[in-house]
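In this section we walk through a basic example: taking a raw amino acid sequence and producing a predicted 3D structure, encoded as discrete structure tokens. The instruction is simple. Fold the sequence below.
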Amino acid sequence: MLLAATPQGDDVELTEELIAHIEDLEGFSEKAYYDVNGVLTIGFGHTNATKTFKFDEETVIDRRKAEAILLADLIESQKTVKRMLSNRGLTVNQPVMDYMVLVYFNRPWVLRTTMEDIATMNADIAKQSQIDAYEEEKGEAPDWYLGRLDKEFAYINEFDDKTEDGTGPMKDVEPPPPQPPEDDGKTIQEILEPMKDAPSTPLPKENLVTNFFSKIRELFTTAVTKQQEFNDRIYREPFKDMYDKIGGTNE
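The resulting token sequence is shown next.
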């Protein structure tokens, strides 16, 4: 689990793995600086928008202080995410909740417009929704933004394996192929059945090509006949009485 809940309920445990992940995404700076979006930043991606620690261009902090600020930021982010989920009537598992906290921590304006898509727990939908949100707000999504999305999804999946309990994080999972209706399955069996009864004796050597294609034509004709019988049974017979009453035909 990325963000471990503590007995206080809304608090989170700041693990070494989480610090390393956020440092990989945000970097770390003891001095205040302006990020790629022109926002004054310090520590592990902290800005004045969170209101947990106010600072200016002259502020300098050490790593221990930065970790305390990061913890406060994540706690506030988690409280806000829980409130947003409740207001929208959404329910998600813990890994997806953790992901939403990371999104809100870095880009709250994106989560406000993509929460429903992220809640689907479909990685493709969640990622594309955030790309669309960025491009609608700021223009074409830059490479660093796309790279950040990939890193965030990779980190969530690294620490929360869906195969453990079946309710893990967002994954790119191919849906199972649709199964044919029961009648279709029976008809396929009926079509294939004559092919299994093909003679085991080899075809005569004389006119080998002619005999081969003759057998293929025979099998094909059988298959077409079986399919036609199926079509009559499914599509024509149920409506036969109706057509008889109106003096028409169901051809």
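Looking at the output, two observations stand out. Residues 208-236 form the longest helix (29 residues). Residues 32 and 58 are 7 Å apart (CA to CA). In the next section we compare this with other chains.
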